[in-house]
Amino acid sequence: MGWLFMSTWAMGGFATPKAYLDDQFTYSPDENGGRQYGLRILKSVWSGSEYYAAAEPWNAEGTLPVFAVVCLVRWNPKAKSGEHFGYKDMTESMGPCYYRCPASVLDLLGPTDSEYAAGWRTRCRQQLALTRRRRPRPGDTLVLAEPMRFSDGYEGQSFAVIEYRKGIALKGRNGGYYRISRLMERAWTLVPASAAVGGVP
Description:
Radius of gyration: 22 Å
Largest sheet: 6 strands, antiparallel
Number of helices: 3
Number of strands: 11
Distance between the termini: 49 Å
Shape: elongated
Order of helices and strands: EHEEEEEHHEEEEE
Helix content: 10-25%
């Protein structure tokens, strides 16, 4: 399915994308309309640009295994175009390339025979393991899994972690200072300050 955009007044009184999407994915069976199962959201999380939900199909006879719903979200209530809210929905069996689903949703999912869904769940768990690491601290040395090339042409793999304007920056062997977007989602290791010698190994 492609993107669907709407204005806030078309959201049916729901104040946030999460509330609107929770309602959209909650419905009852309609045998006359050919819908044998209803759907209910057991847990959902909206991060701003992504929505993840554990959805359970059900009817009077019982339930089916819980699966994940993934939505890309665009939310700009002040957009002059009137396109305040937009979303693109998919299920885990479609192999979405977005892996920031929280454990609170993943833990509710049922068994699946979909190779795409299984692979997506594995990638999400791997992503969670990365984000749960200790954050780099000034004095540590951060070593990327693979060298990275920056816009100034410098290519580095090992960086000294320094304090910079109430945050952290990375200092390369060339003496330059760098920041890496979504650092906690990338593969790297730390040499703690107590073990680092000379700032950059």
